[in-house]
Design a protein that fits this description.
Layout: E1 3-5, E2 8-10, E3 34-35, E4 48-49, E5 55-59, H1 64-75, E6 82-86, H2 116-122, E7 128-129, E8 134-137, E9 142-145, H3 148-157, H4 160-163, H5 175-190, H6 192-197, H7 202-223, H8 236-252, H9 269-277, H10 288-298, H11 324-327
Parallel strand pairs: 3-4, 5-6
Antiparallel strand pairs: 1-2, 1-7, 5-8, 8-9
Bound molecules: glutathione.
């Protein structure tokens, strides 16, 4: 774990000393947009036009933020149009790497050994965290975006003319509802599990834990009468929630101390997880080997031995029974 300072790699863990032990996630810095016609917006920088074969995603199969982009790529039928490389699940003093012997696909873009080389290839003097996902433009040789919430919106709408896939996970009529869910779920759940797991004081941990389970309780109750968060159709809010939920019992419950209960012990959340898991193509984006190896073997500050637990043994392919909520 580390970061770049003016293009040079430094091996440092998250600094919580100025925030009373609270983990604060840094904002992503590359925030450009792919559009249908490549229009650059008002700021005048070069635009990014949706084209088949031009863009590439660098992901970790372990990372819930990167997982959003893989899910959207799959649901929108973009596999043949946007290529992917996968980092090693083990992230230690060099940050994310492309070590093939540890399960990485290698880096087809620059044959880089380290993911931070992708950042300095885009911007020589980059300062900041070196995260996945990264959406890379092979034409301009630069990073379009390293913010998953924005990448999934681009994948949802910019490539429809190329794929013919018109499925809309961010429909205009549901945007207010989606925003309300995202605004609650991001701090309390997506980032909430990290706030619990990376807290370095008892108070910071307890605050995150309570907020997390309050939100999960509310969602479980909501899902008792709604198949998906906004009702009858899957939206980006479900995709964003799913990537945290699918990791919860295997990782966050133990490793991040989110252990009031397992998600499997809720009434409605387990069926909801399986419902999304069983959407076409989604199961193929879930890799528990990478997920478990990454968290348990990389966060040596939390798990110094790096030993990876064998359980839990949960069958996400078993029937979910949630079709009944559509007719209700
Ligand atoms: N806001 C970013 C966050 C991405 C992120 O934090 N990814 C984690 C992996 S789960 C990462 O790469 N962390 C490395 C680091 O912080 O040094 C997004 O949603 O894309």
């Amino acid at each position: 774990m580390g970061m770049l300072v003016e293009g040079k790699w430094h091996d440092v863990w998250y600094d919580t000393s100025g925030s009373k032990g609270r983990f604060i996630r840094e904002d992503a810095q590359f925030r450009n947009w792919i559009t249908v016609d490549g229009s650059a917006g008002d700021s005048g920088e070069a635009g990014f036009k949706a084209e088949s074969g031009r863009y590439h995603l660098c992901v970790s199969l372990a990372c819930p933020w990167a997982h959003r982009t893989l899910m959207m790529r799959s649901l929108k039928g973009l596999e043949a149009h946007i290529s992917v490389s996968v980092v090693s699940p083990i992230m230690l003093e060099h940050g994310w790497t492309y070590h093939r012997d540890e399960g990485s696909s290698g880096d087809p873009l620059h044959n880089a050994e380290f993911h931070h080389q992708i950042y300095t290839a885009a911007q020589e003097d980059y300062s900041g965290r070196v995260t996945v996902p990264v959406l890379w433009d092979k034409e301009q040789n630069t990073i379009v975006s390293n913010e998953s919430s924005e990448i999934i919106r681009m994948l949802n709408e910019a490539f429809n003319g190329i794929t013919g896939n018109q499925d809309d996970y961010y429909p205009v009529a549901l945007r207010d509802q989606i925003k309300q869910w995202n605004d609650r779920i991001y701090p309390a759940i997506n980032n909430g599990v990290y706030r619990a797991g990376f807290a370095t004081t008892q108070g910071a941990y307890e605050e995150a834990y309570r907020t997390l389970f309050d939100a999960l309780d509310d969602i479980d109750a909501h899902l008792g009468s709604h198949r998906y968060l906004t009702g009858e159709r899957v939206t980006e809010a479900d995709i964003r929630l799913f990537t945290t939920l699918i990791r919860f019992d295997a990782i966050y419950h133990g490793h991040f101390k989110c252990n009031r209960q397992r998600l499997e012990d809720y009434d409605h959340i387990p069926g909801y997880i399986r419902d999304i898991y069983q959407l076409p193509g989604v199961a193929d984006t879930v890799d528990f080997d990478h997920i478990k190896t990454h968290y348990y073997a990389s966060h040596r500050m939390i798990n110094p031995t790096g030993v990876v637990p064998l359980g839990p043994d949960i069958d996400y392919a078993r029937p979910h029974g949630r079709e009944r909520l559509i007719a209700a």
